Batch of 4 targets.
Target 1
Amino acid sequence: MNEALPNFELLLREALAPVEPPADLVERVEGALEAITELAAGELEAWELSAMRDPRNWARPAAALVAGGAAGTALVLLRARRRAQRTPRHGLRATRFEQAAERALKDLAEETRKQTRKLLDRR
Amino acid sequence: MSEKPTPKPKAQLDAEFSELYRAHLRDVYSYAYYRVGNHHDAEDLTEQTFLQAYRHFERAQRESRGRPLRPWLIRIAHNLAANHYRDRSRRPASSIDDTQPITAPHTTEQLVEGREELGRILDGVRRLPDDRREALIMRFALGMDNREIARALDRSDGAAKVLIHRAIKQLQEMLDEDASGALLAESAHGNSTDAAREDLGAHERTPGR
């Protein structure tokens, strides 16, 4: 066995083949990451409540809202891609990705609407 | 006087983290799986690794100065796994859940032989000292080069190279020993069976019994 080192390394590579993560783990990790992002948004809201009394800070939450919406975009798009990957039927993949992306953008638009409403209510 | 670098907008950081996550989820999971030996703990370890990575992502990006972040991710998993075993005073599960399927076409006989051989190798990997086992996982399961392994294990490139070399050598020696041990046992078993057969024959042949 010692003479054939490259063969042994090939066997090692085969024995230690990469392992695909299970689908439910993908859901779990992405869910946890999304929850963290939402938690960060919650902290921002707490800051807003105290800071909104000062007119100099009025521009800041608006900017944060834009940034927060965009921050969610990365994870929302990630979710869209995952939805599309779950439907590998031939010929339908592109259409399904578009549908998933559309759904994801709707989610995002809804979330932005909620945040805007909250801000306006506070004024 | 050095100026502090301007922090990146959160949106950009999140987008970059998503990229990192997509690119390396399989690496982290593979590492975790071979490190802890079962899917259940590997899933927990993977989740915790990404959550911790998310918390420290900005600093890691700043300090990496453009170098790939995979070694940093694997190092987080490595530290978490070490803490896991330290806290619970336990070693990886007794054997890896199942041998990975062989993708190349084989005859049934070859497949069984191949699986047995791969099983023996995996078992050998599990019996290696922690640092050697990890180096082999990084090299062969994740395809990391010496430099990446060195960064993940916080060693010099040269030390990582030596570690891998020694790990392979020790594994080969272990497997050779196992193989000769099995041969010896088989031959001892064969001898004792022959002796028993002879005894039985003598017994059967003993007249008057």
Target 2
Amino acid sequence: MPSGKPLTREEFDSMAAQMGISGEPAYLDELFSQVRGIVTGADSLREMDVSNAEPDMVFVPPSA
Amino acid sequence: MDELEICYMSAGDLSRLVSKKEISPVEIVDAHLSRIQATEPVLNSFITLLADEAGASARQAERDIQSGRYRGPLHGIPVGLKDLYNTRGVRTTSGSKIFDNFLPEEDCTVAVRFREAGAILLGKLNMHQFALGPTGENPDYGHMHNPWNPEMVSGGSSGGSGSAAAAGQCTITTGSDTGGSIRIPAALCGIVGLKPTYGLVSRHGLTPLSWSLDHPGPMVRTVEDAALAMNAIAGYDPKDVASANVTVPDYTEALTEDVRGLRIGVPKEYFEVPLDPEVRQSVQNALSQLESMGAEVREVSFPMFEQSQAISTAILLAEAAAYYRDVVEKDGDKVYEPVRLRLEAGRFISAADYLRAQQARSLFDREARQLLNEVDLLAGPTEPVTAPKLLAGTVIAGEHEVGTVGALTQYTRPFNITGFPAISVPCGFSSSGLPIGLQLAGRPFDELTVLRAAYAYERATDWHKRRPDI
């Protein structure tokens, strides 16, 4: 997924086609809107300094 | 005894009568089946009702108890399971007609443990399709309705569990909580919902939504019943790779009514996001109540709270998209469109972004742990609003109009990210008569402290005694 700039409709259409995602125009419009929201959220995470954090793949209880 | 009284008795109170043979499991089950028959046309809490099977189990329980084989507090008590808990030979749909004919060959661990405790399975409860939504929408089996006002949502995704418990259709119900799906319907329906620590209750035999965020747990009308349910279902299960091999206490030890010396932190960030003024006031009243009982209530700061939506969304939708990819590719046209949209949107999350969200989750977890070194519990609203109207895309929270999904999960998802235990307990009603919930979250595996505070608050108030007019 592109980062640092808003996802364009052309980029979205290209990615959706590669993934085999299809639908009526209204459906794809709504999907595009939701994906842009996710991209915005992902961008906010990219602004965080996570250099000292390993991915927390599974919560490991301290006393387990 | 009046049937309606039976239906609104807690498991604790019923069990005290059952153990003394003052009421039989047959009476209890019959009362609940009548209640379901009377209210189900409005609420739509159940996908599958097991009336005949429950009747047979009740007669067996009665024979066992009469002959001295009493199994304990859940013997003869009606239980309902969200319809993503596998039940051997009983269809388990995950809220979709795609799985209308799925008959599991094995019970999930929670079902096994309830059965071993003598509980009687009344049926399988309705849910937001695939558990992917906080409102209780389901076109395949019908939307769920709130017992306090059927024009409003029951909440989701465990909406049928919330409405069934609140309306006296079932004594103990279960939910699964990935972003709030136990606590949201609990708050909106005015009941108690406990999301236990990740790994404490087995996920074996539950349809996943997001492997690293899914938590099974009880939804009931009293804190005592949450403790009794946890006594039955908590504990290590080698069939669940995430199951924690920890000592499980007797959760009823938490029922002391004593919160003296308990340190309760209230994140100031909770009150910097859209929040209904009536909810704010009810929660502040609840905190004052706890303070008057001897708890030390103080403001704390939880800066990473604002990152919870981005972290949760990236992890949840990526994992859900992975799990449901084959289903959507094969039968996408049969999936409820808002659910399908979220599942397909999840496919646009790259592996790098997913892992970055998991890195951010580590930082989030670190900050939450530091906070819980300073205080014993974190407290605040479970929900920023009362139950929204069915199918409303937005809600009004204070002066803001915000998206329903984001609003309903804003206070709950942080504790799916951390895996810490969190409970919603009734703490008031709006002027329109809709319930409001207080959320209390604690340290990992410290359900005793969470239950202790919730119980003490519940005993000091009477919100849990109110009944919907249905």
Target 3
Amino acid sequence: MEQEARVAVERSTPLSISPINLRGKPRFGENVIEIIVFVCGAISIFTTTAIVIVLFQEAWLFFGSPEVDLAEFFGTTTWQPETGRFGIWPLMTSTLITSIIALIVAVPLGLGAAIYLSEYASPQARGYLKPILEVLAGVPTVVYGYFALTFVTPVILQGLLGKENVEIYNMLSAGLTMGIMILPLVASMSEDALSAVPRALREGAYGLGATRLETSLRIVVPAAMSGILAAVIVAMSRAVGETMIVALAAGAGPRFTFNPLQAAETMTGHIARISGGDISYASIQYTSIFAIALVLFFMTLLLNLLSGWVASRFREVYE
Amino acid sequence: MSAQSLDQRDRPTGYLPEGADINRNIAVRRLRGAIWHAIFVSSLIIGLLALATLIYTIVNDTFGYIAVQTKVDPEELTGGRPLEELSKEELIEILRANVSAGLFRRFDRDEPFSERSRESVLQLVEERVVGREVVAVYKLTESLLERERIEATVRERFPRAKLEFHSWLNRDFLTRPMSSVPILAGVGNAILGSLWVIAITMLLAIPIGILGGVYLEEYASDTWYYRLIETNINNLAGVPSIIYGILGLAVFVRAFESFTSGAMFGVTDSNGRTILSAGLTMALLVLPLMIINAREAIRAVPQSIRQASYGLGATKWQTVWHHVLPNALPGILTGTILSVSRAMGETAPLIVIGASTFIVFFPDSVFDKFTVIPIQIYNWTSQPGAQFRSIAAAAIIVLLVTLLALNATAILLRNRLRRSY
């Protein structure tokens, strides 16, 4: 016992000689800061949790009320809160129709612009063209709503198709304008994907005698396909969640129709109109907008996750 | 000719053209290239054309001839002096003499005349007594190109009316509050409302966003909750803005009503639909954007700077505060300005929260009802009538010029403060 103790003392001696101890000094301030910084990062979790809780809670009240059930919500095609009929399909179809029209405009144009910027344009031309596209992306959506209502519908649509064939509020005008709105998004995301394709691939194609077009369409675009697909899906998600254009131009009243020249309210447009008026917090109309928002939230979440998955799953890795 | 190349010629896919075929083949491919080149260029041009048309439409609606008709000639009321030169007392007298006693008392009840400013009385006189009324509105292009036709139509249809060239965007428009009469309406209180909301948003989003970025880049290790936060922030950036509005409605407007309406602090005449609720909601909306931008800026600071700081014995926070953040500042500033411009143009969440479309007073505390520029644009665009369209266009110019100025500042800052390592 004694011997062991002495050995222990001898062993510890060299340490105790050292005048300053550099290790293990607790720094109170550093720890507090670390906690603060962590909380700031974690606030985003609070946002998501709050969104999910709020949406589910009110939607639960909505589906729990005697006037509605899930089968009616997803199975019928009339949305008339006044008469207690809540079938989401009229809102859903108009959302999808406007979004698909937007994609039909934005994807070819955006992709064409991206190929031009990345493969054809000189660095100087790209230098001033890209910022202009970014300006287009920075225009607030309410301005596009004004544009749809005061220019696209009366001048373009009613001018081309005749005043009697096109309603003042219609899905086509909202969809076309939304296409212009998401065009810069598709263009800039696709351009990033195209520019990321290594130069060696292009030079290989040129070396084999391919023209610029053949190189672009057969080599560069396939190589950047994952990024382009991701851009298209993000654009779809943006179009589904867009509110101001459809609230102003697509019409104020749910209608189950597949004719894009008619007015029909979308999910976002309906939420905006109902919550914009003075509604009582106890009414079923109030809880109904949470049910719509829940569907909307999951649609966009799904699209965003899908976009991320496509981008990583199908990425071609070079080098 | 070897046997091998003959074999190739027989294979349909590996056919190599020879002689005249080569030229034809090349010509066809070049032509196809030229056609597609034109297609790519034109898709870009269509985008630019859309932007040009947008600007044209806005400008076209903002300026142009208007035909104005008055119920009473203002010169008769004042004996030849212009209305703008009269004092407040004289204006009140004119008002008393020309409107019914009941109406006069009602104005006094709404806001006592002793407390009203001269401008507010002048506006009442213009609205109620002079009754300047716009009877016809013309767009800029018509006004410039078809002047004679417009003059003839106005003479014929409104013989008493005066035709004048009017810019809907003017100093009065920038300073006046809302009005139900388009020509008297302004965005004064909407501009102030926008500033209030942005101030609260940024007060919260800037520190939290930067510190959140610092956590993700400097402090976090690769644990499950780090990955959760990271994925979560990226997904939050893609959530539609109207969902944030719904969140704000349920949480800030309803659940925390006693806080956001100011009831907790002794404000009594208000509900939860206040500037504070709007600012808090907008802060949640721009936070993911702020964090993502801050992260990128912090990541761009080279590792050697951190190592040098640690090597001199600095602690983690000292390194972050004195070396990483100052070096990341240009990027963070750019991200902040982009977030501000996002918050300025955002409309949908504020509609859901319940921004008022019609308020005439100027907000002076965070517990006031509010309106912002985009809400006014939405409101005016959805009203029928050419005059409302014109003031919507004027408000759009105000908004777009502000956003353009912000973005230009961001680009300038980025270029001026950028350092290369």
Target 4
Amino acid sequence: MLRSSAWRVRLAHAAVTMGAAVRRHAWSYLFVLPTFALFVVFTLVPVVQAFVLSLQSARIVGGDFIGLQNFVTLAEDPVFRQALGNTILYSAVVVAAQLTLALVVASLIQPLGPRSQTFYRALFYLPLVNSAILVAMVWRWIFNANPYGLANTVLGVFGLQPLLWIGSSDQALAAVILSAVLTIPGGGVVLYSAAMGSLPKELYEAAEVEGAGALTKWWYITVPLLKPTTLYLLVVYTILAFQIFERVYVMTNGGGPNNATITIVQLIYSTAFQFGRYGLASAMAVVLFIMAVAVAVVQFRSLRSDVEY
Amino acid sequence: MDGDAGVKIDRRRFLQALAAVGVAVACGPSAAPASASPAPSTSGAVAKPVSIEWWRRNYTAGTGSAETITSDGAVKGFRDRNPNYTITIQGGPFGPETDQKFDIAILQQKAGPDVFHTTGGDVLKYAAAGQLSEPPLTATEKSDFNASALTATTYKGKVVAYPLWIVPWFEYINLDLFKERGVTPPKDGNWTYEEFLDAAKKLTFKRADGKQIYGFAHANDEFAFMLIDGGRLYDTAVKTWTFNSAEAVSGLERWVALAKEKVMPPDFLTLNPNDSQARFISGEIAILQRPSAMINVLNADPKWVYGTNWDIANFPKGKTAQTAWGGVGFIAVREQADADKKAAAHVFAKYLTGPDIGPDLKKMTPPIEYWLAPAARTSAAGIYGEYHPAKAKVAKMGSFTYVLPNVSTWAEIDQKYLRPARDAALEGKKTAKQALDEVAPTAQKLLDEANK
């Protein structure tokens, strides 16, 4: 009874607070409305629809409600399990490498003068304007299994035998991962570089007084203070890695020899648009969604900090 | 002080909020144009004007693609015979986007094309949804079609579309390389598997300048070797998966032997059609397995003279009679309430697949080669062979070309299970029997699903 009353009081208080907020910011909500409407129509509704479709045997002309059967099918499907494993492996390696690379490159740029900093930031960021498909086509040539592929040409210079790269089920995923790792993440470099520029100088001066070297300052001051930026990049890069598609599609003809490079999004694409199983493809998208949310929550909890500067 | 604290918290939260929005947005989820062109249709029985729409993949008005030139010519030829009909052509690239456009229009909106060009599993999909109008073919007309092509358009005992053409896969041979290595080309295009393998081995070599030549390549898009010893995907009723039979296993073992002998380029598992053609044209491949469309590609290149630099040969022969692998193209008419449009669409579809269109377009200025592959109707088949001596050879292949029966779940069986299993065998990770036996239960399940 008491508990019920307390809830009523809380609800009434919340309603009053919300009412006041609406009255106070009514115009603001009006301005936000167009963007919010677009978000609802083009993002939120499709996501909800994907959840609904995942519970149906949906084909192009509709389907029946089948509960969690699509998820059971996925659990029993060796190709989906392979896609899941490949996606996780790709994401773990690529995200770790890209974060590290971005941090290192930004740290190397930081001591330079303002003009040089701007030049190098632009230099690392500009490749991002290239079409991902074109980039993947270049990597396809680099990792061509023939001796004239660039990677094999380089191996030849060192007297090493050519590898099969994307032409082999043992090496194809490694080649795709390597192609992503060797692409310096320009966005991360720019963000880290900007964040480093705003770190307080006093901390470094104090460390110098204590006799700290450059590496010690970087490890004990720069890296910890960049945690918020690291968290942001970690979450975004992880999601992008989970969504890996065009690189696999172009480099290895959509899955590679013996499904060696198949990923979840590649499988979603073929399941929906080539096999016509929209319900099953939606179930895969839901699994991907849950993976992304779960990983993001873990990342938030482990990296959230009260570091302020 | 408060102000400072506020700023600090805002920045951190801003980054966290950006990351959170990233999660939400990341988990959220795009046909092509038409061109008006003249109009069309057949028999003259319909006197009142009727406008219909023809959807044709790879048609883009004003371009020089084969589909555009032949489609514009077809419409003109039809209209010359049937001035009361008007035909608008709508195009779209080959690929999933256009496939989806067809699906949405035909299956969801029950609208779109009155007549359209389609292939394989789409016919069954649309027939199962009751969206195809049954062609009014007489018994004589039916007997004029290639039997396997007609079977491929049959759904629950009824012919649901007009077979257009049969596209066979065969071998293109580089006569210069044969000459360079002293290899005799197959007489009249016929060779056994053993003769083919022997030639491929001799044609795999490295020149003094370091250029590597490979005896054989394919574009990773067919299973022809698995057919040559008599292996077939299904039983004759298309109820049982039989592609793990001793004959199919033996066929795959012949394919595996090519990999073991290293007569194919090292990237043969990921070689796509364009790359394979480019390598043949650049003289790196002695024997290339491709369908008939490549004839026009070679003819367009002045460096390649038929009979001097290149020729075509049949598929190597295995333990059974000569076999080839091929696909079928169809013209379908959409079911609809408008009887006039439907009738006009059928008249046009018959023209597109019949014996008159070839000669009509050949008489045009400049002459147009309408048939991009041998016609599925015997009465229409002759003209394809008149276009080019190589095409005359291809025209004879229809009699032994195995046309893949239509199974609506074929794409899934093929791409998701059969190709990876085949890859495992070709890489030596599994024996041919292991690979095909592992696929069989899943393939049967998907076949059963298709037959429901």
